[in-house]
Structure formats: C-alpha cells, structure tokens
Amino acid sequence: MQLGRAFVPVACSFLFRTGACCMGHMALFVNGAGKLNTLFCATREATIKASSRVLQESKPSTPRTKKSISEKKTMSAEGNGGAMATNKQVILRDYVSGFPKESDFEITTTNFELRLPEGSNSVLVKNLYLSCDPYMRSRMGKPSAFALAQAFTPGKPILGFGVSRVIESGHPDYKQGDLLWGIVGWEEYSVVTPEMHFKIHDTDVPLSYYTGLLGMPGMTAYAGFHEVCSPKKGETVYVSAASGAVGQLVGQFAKMMGCYVVGSAGSTEKVDLLKNKFGFDDAFNYKDEGDLSAALKRCFPKGIDIYFENVGGKMLDAVLLNMNMHGRIAVCGMISQYNLEDQEGVHNLTSIIYKRIRIQGFVVFDFFDKYSKFLEFVIPCIKEEKIAYVEDVAEGLEKGPEALVGLFYGKNVGKQVVVVARE
Fold it and tell me: Where is the region Disordered (predicted)?
C-alpha cells in the first residue's frame, strides 16, 4: 500500500475470524488529494455476497487438465489477447476438521482464456505473491451460521490476499501493467472485481510487503496496539506469537512508544529474532516453559500492563494471573484454538474483575478510518530503516499448501509468503 493512495479490501486483526485478520467487506479508497472515502458492507450477508462474486469470477472457464504450463507459453499468451494458457491452482479437496494437512489440498491446472468477456467491468490479473494467514483456517471448515466468513468451496481454488499485475482491464480506473492488492484465488491467473482491490502506486519497496507490513497484518498491528491498547510510555507489553506477521510489528511499535516489551515464540531461532532483530527487551520459548505463569512472572516482575493476544488457551490463562490493575488485552487471534474440536476454557476469569482488566476483541476494518495515518507513520519508518521485517518465502504455487499448513505448526519464521511469479 502506498502513502495516501490505496484501496484496501477486507481485513481484520484476525481477518474473517475474531481478531487477527476481515469480515464485512470494507473498501478504502484514497483519491489524488489524499482524502479517504470508505465503503462499508457491514453485514455478514453483504460480505458473503461479495465473497461469492469473487468465487464466481475466479472459477475456471473450462474443465481442468493435467497439462503443466511453461513460462515461455505464459509470456506468449499474455502478449496475445484471447490466447489460451493453463492456470495452476490450489484446490480445497474437502472441508477440514482438526489440523489441516497438505493432503487436504490439490494442485491442478485449468485451461484459461487470457481475455475478459465483452463489456466486463472486471480485471484480469496475473498473481505474483500470495499471503498465508491464520484466518484462512476458519474458512476451511463446513459452512456455519456462526462463521464470520463464507467457507471455501471444495473443488474450487482457495482465496486469500495477494499482489497481482493487470493483464487486461474492463474497468476505467485500471490499465494493463497496473499492480493491485486484494483478495484473489490461489492460482496463476484470476478475474477480480476492482472494487475489492487497491492499486499500488509506490514500488520502491518489495511488492511482497503488500502481503504483510503494508497490508492487512501491518494495519492490524498498528490499530490493535495504538487504538485498542491505548499505550503509554514506560508501560510493560507482552506479545504472544511475537515473531509472526503481526507480532513482530506490535513489538516494534511498542518499543517506539518507549515501552518495555517481551515476546514469546516457539523456537530458539525465533526467540533470537525477537531479541536481536526486532529489538524486544526479552523473549522466551514457550515450549521450554513448564509453567507459563512463572515464565511471565520472571519476565515481568512488576506485572503486565498490555497483552497483545495471538494465542489464547493456556497462554491467556497465565497472562490473566500476571496482569496489572487496569491492564488492557487486545484480542487479535487465538491460533492455539483454531484446530480444536472443543476449544479450551479459561479458568482465571475472576482476575478480570479484581484487576479491572479491559479485554477487547477487534477486527481491523473497524479502524480503517486511521489507515492514512498508519501509512504516514509506517512508510517513512520503512524508508528510514526504523522497522525490521522478516518474511518466510515459499517459491512456487505448488509450495502453497505446505507453507499454509506450516503456519499451524509454527514452521514459518516471519511473514509467510508464497511467490507465484516474480514481478
């Protein structure tokens, strides 16, 4: 995303789930004068309708084949409007229960015509980078009346945030060669609705950053910390899942505020990143701690003022025992619970009463009126190298299932990105 000029689709601190990433489609436009115009489709029904439109426009025009595509053929097809190409896709085999597995997905190809239907207002794009996000797990299960977002459809490509280049446009605001960011199918080519995407204007940062630091995770970290947590200089801040796309940024934003920051992660390598790359004051490997409450007491002898919640379960229980009076907890996500049939209960809830703790769940689109403010803050930080940012890059769409599933086993180090094609 770029300073003062962008459109952002759905996102949340838990988009399409409960707090770290988007439900209810929210499009954010910035005109040439830098003024924001927001379009909210706040209801679940509106969101499902919008998501369904993307699914319909992304579906293959012809039956699948097993023929692979070569880069030479792809380039030739792109240079000749209406030529046929093959379109590699990541398909959901069936609804998922428990932890997702690579076998829950299938790599297939379809025949794909590189031309829009006459009179179409859509945009045909080649996908470059895809974002792996924890919220996507909530869309792999069976449809539910209680779900915040429409489930993926078995037999069709899964959907997620991606960075794409326009091949052909039926929309007056987009032309061939433009770069876009928004929801796309996990495939090489997609037909998308421009209203659910934004145009990328500044390209002096890696385009993959629009899957994280300059995209939904970055705004999630900014809004969750600054708007929900109401931080003050000198306060103590704890971030769980701190080496991920959101956590690594929350910790750095907190340090910029003059806070004392501790993070937890699931490996020695990640702990080292937190302390030596991202500048956390301290960090620990939660897998090495038999008593999480004791570990937090060791790191925060005077208690925790702010907890940025990404994990849930036993971690939240331990945190409640170590919170200070009038502490704040921003509930961004609960990744430890997403794959459980019966989610874990929390036992130390009376601490909320006695310590007057404020716990707030959030979705990032609630704060997109702050988006221009976020960009004004974060882009100079990137250019001045005040923010460290780590990506875990998987090369090739065929590596997508492995990369996505790895999120739920803690295999990624930093923001997980899948490269479909280099720009």
Answer: 52-81
Flag whether pLDDT at 322 surpasses 50.
yes
pLDDT at 339: 67
| Residue 251 three-state SS | helix
The model's pLDDT over 77-100, given as tens digits with 9 standing for 90+, comes to 455 456 889 999 999 999 998 889
CA 120 to chain centroid = 29
- Decide: 323 and 329 in contact? Cβ < 8 Å: yes
Query: Mean per-residue pLDDT for 194-218?
Result: 87
- Cα–Cα distance, 273 to 313 (Å, whole number): 24
DSSP 393: E
Contacts within 8 Å (CB) and 24+ apart, 174-180: 174/123, 174/199, 179/203, 179/207, 179/423, 180/123, 180/125
The domains found in the chain, sorted by start residue, are: 43-213+389-419 (3.90.180.10), 218-363 (3.40.50.720)
Strands 197-200 and 179-185: antiparallel
Strand partners, 108: 89
Q: What pLDDT does 232 receive? A: 97
What percent of the chain is modeled with pLDDT above 90?
Answer: 57
Strands in 64-65's sheet, in edge-to-edge order, are 64-65, 105-113, 84-92
293 dihedral zone (left: phi>0; alpha: psi -120 to 50; beta)? alpha
pLDDT score of 366: 86
Helix (H, G, I), strand (E, B) or coil at 24: coil
- Contact between 273 and 264 (Cβ < 8 Å): no
Tell how strand 358-361 and strand 36-40 pair up: unpaired
The model's pLDDT over 307-321, given as tens digits with 9 standing for 90+, comes to: 999 988 899 999 999
DSSP state of 5: B
Residue showing tokens 């792109």: 78
More confident residue, 23 or 164: 164
What 3-state DSSP class applies to 337?
coil
- CA distances for 376 relative to 187, 214, 216, 219, angstroms: 33, 11, 16, 12
d(C-alpha 97, C-alpha 341), whole Å: 8
Q: Any idea what DSSP says for residue 191?
A: E
